[in-house]
Structure formats: C-alpha cells, structure tokens
Amino acid sequence: MSTRQFAWQRPVAWANVNSTMCLPHLQMTYEAMQQAAEVDAVARQYTNGFADIFDVMLPWFWEELSRPTAGEAITAIRHLQVRWLAHEPDGLIVRKVGHKVAQQVQRLAADLWIEIRAGGRIDALPSAKQLDQFLRSDGHRHNPGTTADLIAATLLVALLLPSHVSRRRASQVPSTE
Fold this sequence. Notes:
177 residues; 10 helices; 0% strand; flat
C-alpha cells in the first residue's frame, strides 16, 4: 500500500502535507469527523488528537493494571469498559436504540463501578451479571461497540508505546474518581 493510499487513514497531524493528492481526502475525512464528533466518540478522537485515548483511557488502563484487585490484563480491560460506560453513553447504543437506553447502560455501569471501587471482584458481583445480561438483551442491540473501539485503540497504544512513555503521560493526568 502506498503512502498516498494510506495517508487519509492516519491522523491529520501525521499526514504527508507535501502530497497534494492526499490533502483533499484528509480534509474531507476531517470535516466528516468534525460533523460526527458530538455524537460519536470515535469521530471525536480524530478531531481532538485522540485525547480520550491518551489522556483518559490509557491512564485508567495503567491505573487498573496497577491495582491489586485487578492485576491481570483481562480484569483491567473489563474495569476499563465499565468505567468508560459509566463515564458517557455509548455512541453505538445511542444510534441503535436511543439515548434513553444508552443512559440506562450508563447507570448500570456506574452502579457496578461503585461496587468495583469498593473492592468487589467484577466476576462475583450481581450487578456485573445484570449489566452483562442487559447488554446482551434485545438481540444484542445494546452492544457497546463504540466503547469496544475505544478500548481496542487504547490497548494498541499501550502495546505500541514504550511503557515508560505512556505511563509517564498517564501519571500527568489527574484522577477522575
């Protein structure tokens, strides 16, 4: 794949600005992302320099990995999912079934997050099972796909960046508890 074909897929800051072939496509992509940014957290990443990934989710992930109650990556990822779902309504759920259902998921996640923060093990909490059942209900239409995309991006960054770099950046972000 040539640089010209790939450039539109990269954040605008990484684009080869010397390529006049890429600039119109980059501009159109950026403008589309700007229009969707208010309702789509993935689109928002392209307009805010991936701030939710670098400044929120990555610090939360490192924080969860360092907790004695998490310790394992899979538990840290599950905690990250619950924490983000409690933080804001999932965009895919909003698009599929509406803001009211997305807010219901947010409330269920917030209740679960409180229990996790109190020391509960996510795999032993009835509220975790309740959230899981709700997400799978209605033919899996409550699937938090936007949250899944953001977590995938966060994990990619965590794997690609040297840990001392991403952890240093994470330590500069104040806790949002």
